[in-house]
Amino acid sequence: MKVMVFAAHPDDEIIGVGGALAKHVRQGDSVSAVIMAEGKSSRKEDYEKPCDSIMQHSYSETEQALSTLGISDFVRLNLPDNRLDSMDLLDVVKEAEKQIERFQPDIVYTQYGGDINIDHAVVFRAVMTATRPLPGHSVKQVLAYETLSSTEWNYLNKDQFHANFFINIEEELELKLKAMACYDSELRDFPHPRSLQAIENNAYVWGAKSGFSAAEAFMLVRGTW
User: Fold this and answer.
1) How wide is the angle at C-alpha 143 spanned by C-alphas 141 and 146, nearest 5°?
2) What is the DSSP letter of 181?
3) pLDDT at 41 exceeding the cut of 80
4) What is the DSSP-derived secondary structure letter of residue 87?
5) What is this structure's pTM?
6) Residue 98 half-sphere exposure, CB side, CA atoms within 13 Å?
7) 141-145, strands of its sheet edge to edge
8) What is the DSSP letter of 63?
9) For a designed S-S bond to 54, which of 50, 61, 79, 176 qualifies (C-beta 3.0 to 4.6 A apart)?
């Protein structure tokens, strides 16, 4: 089985689906991660391409985090952070299509399209276009994941995340938190949602809602069998 995760920013892949990725690796599946935007430039008042030292540190964080889960195949595209809506959607779609053609995944995880973060919404739409079910296409299942500090902050009813698929991460939660700890430039102190304690607590809440001690929640967007 081949599994690919698309993330708008470095650390989204761990927050949303780190436990499931660790489970896939443990089960012998091949896993690849694609991180679309550089995740840094939006923190300044005006757009400025991040300097080499910042990007090198960010790349190292991604490499360490994914390595902790047992993943070595990943791509950082470094598109402009929180400005993906300024690009032609077709260009973002083509980037996703290149990665899908390269890896030929059976399962694709992507950000939830109703997130308040614009990059998450663009990535979702691009991935849904890139995974449209054409004859001979490799993708059999597309699941959207939540991202703390984005999914829960969109209060429009039509865009609420309604989980309908749960993955037991009782055995993977500790590894997920260890991987997230590698993103020291992204972590915040509790009670910020992007803190280790909040991520751990969220796993327990989804676990309680799905009959496990700890779980990750998804929306099954498309599946074939």
Assistant:
1) 170
2) T
3) no
4) S
5) 0.95
6) 10
7) 73-79, 30-37, 2-7, 107-111, 141-145, 215-223, 165-168
8) H
9) 50
